[in-house]
């Protein structure tokens, strides 16, 4: 670890713009779906594919693109993905029919995987001495993109039409492309060998599993909050404003928490984050106070995310950084899906027996998931001590 202060530069800007570009695109598009349905004279179910097919395209491409990047270099794949993403955005606005638009969104999702899937590994390798801080900046940028997307999308659709959401990707994509020339290039052993080495690295596997459990807890909480808050009489608009609190906290203090993890250790800070998440979930469930959850979970996410991402990439076997970055994205998506399924199923089963009881039980289970993540972190820490003592 180093005591030198980290500095923001054009290399980090190239990575953060790429992350914000893809995040804003995904979150802003939801505001355009009614306009898309009207434009193509169809219904909400049909145009929903514009969002879901993008996510499916990204999910299936994370590992293949990571393996390709290991062979030909991450900078080439990242820059090509930026160019394709921006180009498809311009073609989307002239789609002759909905089927063409949906197919293009699937392809754009693949390009998005080449951006988001490679950013963690490129960030960690470009800023080796300050990877916790740099990954905290990435997490903060994801939060910023999530925050900016809905209001920006609403403004653009109202004033300039749904096409404007895609038009704005071109200047930002080109800017990221111009700034990305100085990024640290990574080469690896390829997908098959990378997976083989990763499966034989227990600390890396434990770090990945703790990531997945973190996102189970995170997305499970995000799903249950609106159901609970609206059930106790809070309007949807106020619920939306209240749910801005955790990403604002993550955006504000995430880089600081990552910088702290650079100094005192990734395992310590990510473990602390998991404990804060556990107590926040249990606390809001027992008390019924959403304030406990919003503040505690916001802080827990800030402590956990950058530090654990840094731990994942630090424990990746030699030559597997690109594949590790892809696996990190897969752990995130898997955790998000499982968290939504778990919380949705539990709430649907329990809400008929009372809102407060359902909220308590779901939060106790989600608190237990956060505790499991903390146990995995302790396990990788002890394993590291054992390996260093041999």
TrEMBL record:
Gene3D superfamilies: MFS general substrate transporter like domains. InterPro entries: MFS (IPR011701), MFS_dom (IPR020846), MFS_trans_sf (IPR036259). It holds the Pfam family MFS_1. Residues 11-382 form the Major facilitator superfamily (MFS) profile domain. Keywords: Membrane, Transmembrane, Transmembrane helix, Transport. The keyword Transmembrane applies. CDD domains: MFS_MMR_MDR_like. It comes from the Bacteria. The chain crosses the membrane at residues 12-33, 45-65, 77-96, 102-121, 133-152, 164-183, 204-227, 239-257, 269-297, 358-378. It is a multi-pass membrane protein. It is found in: Membrane. Its main location: membrane. PANTHER family: MAJOR FACILITATOR SUPERFAMILY MULTIDRUG TRANSPORTER MFSC. This is MFS transporter. It comes from Geomobilimonas luticola.
